[in-house]
């Protein structure tokens, strides 16, 4: 961290000067190790065993934050009776299909309710969730393999799961966790990781002593975790550990991903990922007879903010296609591309070799040397009709056709390569304006310092003018395939001799607007009826009041430690996620020293910061004047909507049609946020009940 993230590491050193203990876990001894209190050298790739050992220590020694775990985790929830863990089935979980090498996760459900997977192949459950028919086309079936990992998180199930508040039931999550991690003993950690037992115990004691009611511990990781094939398991194991210790949603806690570039977070937010739409809305799959309602039915949660996915998606479609997107044409939902499989880097390279992918854009990437199996990348590019490379200089992905390894060995000859390569020089960040989003989800605006030299242009310039020229070429076309491009709202103002699109105008479109073009100030204002447009719902509010909130630069000495008036964080300028967990279920801070949000019984409202009350949103079903444990009255189906109900296990809905209970589709499509808003100055801190 000291070498690769020196600005961030400055604050680690500030914390150390105030008494914090710094533990550096790394196979190498680096400058970070030299400045840490404890350096733990472990074998590369053995992190699961190391984290598992700490989890086992926490559970075995009863070091977990019991009150926090009971209130804000699923530790007390009981799993189904037919669930079997790896120690029961010789290393695999119940539900394994050895022929397809996949799991049927029905036995992993909670007793008394049904849950959708938090990530992975959620689309495999499409039929069950919609009652629809999936196409028999094999390519569409394969679409399930590229499902949007993590989009929207786990759907909260219907019904109430069975719980054991004593945490002693053998099938409650905590006891299952205890049995699963019992294998990770200090002896196994030493054998697998190469970490001496005494050093490992020292780490366990430091982490647990600095966690709980009054103290918090933070985990910071970088490519040492994310670029492993099992990086997701590393980070999930860290999440399990931090949840047990009460280090999520509290100041000084959390799990922090250290990004190597300024806007990697922004690249996934808007996004550059093939299987997501902006704001982590899943990209639709190529199912038959899938309209907007079927998509929302399959993908949206029924509780929490993701239950409002229809409003987010309709507003996105309105931002894309404006007045053309109407209720009558499903808001142009059919204009969106459909996934027919995994379209990630390596599948695309194979498609190039097979001749199915004939053209390729490379923007800020260098797969000729930067990807695993770089030879595959170069051979794929050699089979293209055309390749566009946008970068600061002639990188290897622009010159492989004349000086690549395969040219030197004779495996490829330049005169035999038919790929037409276009190199279009890109502007540096000092030569353009725009925003970048860091690992804290903080949008910060950078201003243009100088004009780009020569033919160099910004990515915004390239994208806007390419779209403009394509639309000109397609003008007058009667082909339905061309309508999504021709109907786009592609009318950004430009400035200067280079005809550069106005980056703030793009930010304003991403922020969203309501009736009369007024900028929206919160994603709570997004509607599902087409009256709002928003390019990315999680960024809604970054242009509130028509002011570029990302460009704010109020010095820290002029505001409190949250620094809510420095730039803008998504969502709703929230600086610490899940911060409702910083107080107990009654709204009392776990620690007065680390108080963040709390219930003020004297004022009868929730507060955040000294002397600050919280305004009630017009959409909030849990107003700030409601006590923390208050629950809303169950909603009933509107009159005359029986025909739109279909049988499911939905509590609180009185509409009946051939089953004990039924869910009203119109009701679940309505926007029903379950949250309160707390404000400190201009910051809006959102948290669920």
Number of strands: 22
> Percent of residues in beta strands?
5-15%
Strand numbers in spatial order across the main sheet? 9-10-11
Report helical residue fraction. 25-40%
| Intertermini distance | 36 Å
Could you explain how this protein is built, in words?
It contains 23 helices and 22 strands. The chain is of the alpha/beta class and 689 residues long. The strands form ten sheets. Strands 9-10-11 form a three-stranded parallel β-sheet, with no helix packed on it. A three-stranded antiparallel β-sheet has the order 12-13-16. β3 and β4 form a beta hairpin. The two termini are 36 Å apart. The C terminus is likely disordered.
Provide a short characterization of the protein structure.
This protein is α/β, with parallel strands linked by helices and 689 residues long. The protein is 28% helix and 11% strand.
